[in-house]
Amino acid sequence: MKSIHIISYLFITLLLASGCNQQAPEEQHNEAAEEARHTEELVRLSPAQANALELKVGPIEQQQLTSSIATTGYLEVPPQNFARVTAYVGGNVSQIEVIEGDRVKKGQPLAYLEHPDLVQMQMNYAEAASQLQFLEQEYERQKRLFEAKVGSGQQYQQTLANVKGQRARVEGLRQQLNMIGINPSAVLAGNVSRKVAVVSPISGFVKEVEVALGQYVPAQEDMFEVVNNEHVHVDLMVFEQDVQKVREGQLVQFQVGNKPDTTYTAKVFAVGKAFEDNPKAVHVHADIQGDAHNMIPGIYVRGHILTGESTVAALPEEAIVQEGTQSYIFLKVEAPAEHHEEEATASAAAVDETKMFYFTPVEVITGERAMGMVAITPAKPLPQGAEVAKNAAYYLLAEMQKGKAEHAH
C-alpha cells in the first residue's frame, strides 16, 4: 500500500514538471518580444554622429511664450501719401523731367505739355479781360447819364448786368490758367506760353511713369504715380475667427518679401470695422517701429500679431517631430544591459567611441508657437531630471525607423 502512494506522488510530480516545462517557452517568447520592441524604439548615436549634428541635450525649461495670430498683407501708405498725377487739360508730352525712383518735391515739374488749345485758352482770357475793360467803361458812362436823369434806367441796368457777367467769365478763365500753371498777369502783359507744366502734388518718389514723349494725353488721364513712404505702414488681413483677439497697441513681428531673413516690428494703430469678402477678413493697420524709409509700398509681408504671454514648458521646433497625427520628443535614456556588456569588453583605445547616446521617443501634446519655440505637455510624466534632445528630432526619427527596418529583417 505504501508503494502505491509513493508511485502516485512521483507521477503527480512528473505531471507538474511537465506543465512548467510547457509554459516556459511562452513566457520566454513574451519577454523576448518586449525586449525587441524596446530595442526597436531606441535610437543609438555615436559621439561622432552627435558632433556632426551639433546635438543639444538638456532639460525641458519653462519659457515665456507669446501667443500670436499668423497673418499676411502688404506695405501701404495713407491715402494722402499717394498721388496719381494727371493733367487738367489735354496735350502732347513735349518733355519728361523725371524717371522712376526719382525723389521729387511738392510743386516740382514732372513733364510739360503742348497743344494749340493751351494757346487758345490764354487768348480767350486776354480777350475776355479786354472786353471787361470796355464794358466797365460803358457802365461808368451809363451810370453818369442815369444819375443826371438823361439816360435810360433800362440801359443802365443792362450794362451793369453785362459787367457782372463778364467779370465772372474773366475770373473763371483766370482760375483755369492758375490751375494749369500759367500766370494770368503774364498773359495780360502779352506773354503767351506754348506749354504747361504737370507738377507733383506731394513730395515723395516717382513710382511709375506712364507716358512717352510726343504722346497725346487727354485731361484726367494718369501720367505719373508719386508715393511718399515716410509714413509707410503694414496693412494686414485678419480672419473672422481671430478679430476679437486683436486690439490697438499690440505688437506685430513681420518679414517683407524681399528680406525674408529680417524681422521687423510694428504696432497696431487701427482695426477695421467692416469685413472684406472672399475671404472674410478685416484690415489691421500697424505703424512700423524704427526706420521705414527704404520700405516700398506694395511689397508682400507675412507676420504674427502678438496677443498675449504665458509661461509654459517649451522646446525648440527642431526638438519636436510629427508622425501621423502624433508629436514626439526624444528622451535621453541609459544604455540597455547588453550595451553595457559590449562596453565592458571594448578596448581602452575605443572607450570614447563606446560612450554612446541613447534616446527613446516620448509622445507630447503641442501648444502655442512663438519665435521658434513650441509649448509642450508630455502625454505621460517624465522622470525627475529628465533630459531630451533639443534639436535633430527628424534625424533621430529616421534613425529609429531605420533600426526598426533592420530588426524586421
How is this structure best summarized?
This protein has 409 residues and is an alpha+beta fold. Helix content is 33%, strand content 35%. Strands 3-12-15-14-13-16 form a six-stranded antiparallel β-barrel. It has a four-stranded antiparallel beta sheet with strand order 4-11-9-6, with no helix packed on it.
Describe the protein's architecture and organization.
The strands form four sheets. The protein has a six-stranded antiparallel barrel with strand order 3-12-15-14-13-16. A four-stranded antiparallel sheet has the order 4-11-9-6, with no helix packed on it. Strands 8-7-5-10 form a four-stranded antiparallel sheet. It has helices at residues 2-40, 47-53, 116-147, 153-179, 184-188, 337-345, 393-408, and strands spanning 43-45, 57-58, 61-76, 82-86, 91-96, 103-104, 109-114, 195-199, 204-209, 216-217, 222-227, 233-239, 251-256, 259-271, 281-288, 300-316, 321-323, 326-333, 357-370, 373-378, 388-389. Helix 3 (116-147) packs antiparallel against helix 4. The chain has 409 residues and is α+β, with helices and mostly antiparallel strands. Mean pLDDT is 83; it is low at 1-38 and 343-351. A hairpin with a 2-residue loop joins strand 17 (321-323) and strand 18. The longest helix has 39 residues, at 2-40.
Oligomer: single chain
Helix amount: 25-40%
Low-confidence stretches: 1-38, 343-351
CATH superfamily of the largest domain: RNA polymerase II/Efflux pump adaptor protein, barrel-sandwich hybrid domain
Tally the helices: what do you get? Answer: 7
Q: SSE string, helix = H, strand = E?
A: HEHEEEEEEHHHEEEEEEEEEEEHEEEH
Number of domains: 3
Largest sheet: 6 strands, antiparallel, barrel
Strand tally is 21
- How far apart the termini lie comes to 61 Å
Structural class: alpha+beta
Return Rg in Å: 44 Å
Q: What proportion strand?
A: 25-35%
The CATH class of the largest domain turns out to be: Mainly Beta
Shape: rod-shaped
CATH architecture of the largest domain: Beta Barrel
Mean pLDDT, to the nearest integer, reads 83
Order of strands across the main sheet: 3-12-15-14-13-16
